[in-house]
Design brief:
Pfam families: MarR_2 (PF12802). This protein is mostly helical. 61% of the residues lie in helices and 7% in strands. 12% of the residues are buried. The model has no long low-confidence stretch (mean pLDDT 93).
Length: 178
């Protein structure tokens, strides 16, 4: 938010004051945490959207291209992409449809499962996602607006919350190599 649009009071702190004043003190800290996270997400998405706009990408489209570009062969089953992106299958299908329309990904038959599709990133998709990643790294990810220690602490706290909410499990210890 620009300096000229800054509010004279923190609306989340005011909401907390109101929660307490209305007798909801036991819920005030939780409401403050939830609304703070949502507002922080809005601020981060505004930076991400501004950075990706010149590339014609939404964050969802970027994530799918980046996921495919990270694979060894630039391809993965649609079901794997859905699982890794942690969004509704319809959302991934719509994203794939738009990326395919733009020539950034293609669908191919799965080599084993005739009912499944493989998503394949095209060379145009690779070039675009590499350029977009360089921009995101320099304009957003290298300086998210927090110190290194605060960033690490925030990631630890949110990861613990996500794990406790059933978002993921720790990998089982792998056997020692032979």
């Amino acid at each position: 938010m620009s300096a000229s649009r800054r509010l004279p009071v923190d609306p989340i702190a005011e909401a907390k004051r109101q929660w307490v004043a209305h007798g909801w003190e036991s819920a005030a800290a939780g409401m403050t945490a939830v609304t703070s996270i949502i507002r922080a997400q809005q601020l981060m998405f505004a930076r991400i959207d501004a950075t990706l706009k010149p590339f014609g990408l939404s964050f969802a489209r970027y994530e799918l291209l980046r996921l495919l570009a990270f694979t060894r062969s630039g391809r993965m089953p649609m079901a794997s992409a859905i699982a890794r992106l942690q969004v509704h299958p319809t959302s991934v299908t719509n994203t794939v449809d738009r990326l395919a329309r733009d020539g950034l990904v293609s669908r191919e038959p799965h080599p084993v499962d005739g009912r499944a599709a493989m998503l394949v990133i095209t060379s145009a998709g690779v070039n675009l996602v590499e350029d977009a990643t360089a921009a995101l790294n320099s304009e957003v990810f290298e300086d998210v607006g927090l110190s290194g220690a605060d960033t690490a602490e925030l990631v630890r706290i949110i990861a613990r919350f996500r794990k406790d909410s059933g978002d993921f499990t720790d990998p089982r210890p792998q056997p020692d190599p032979l």
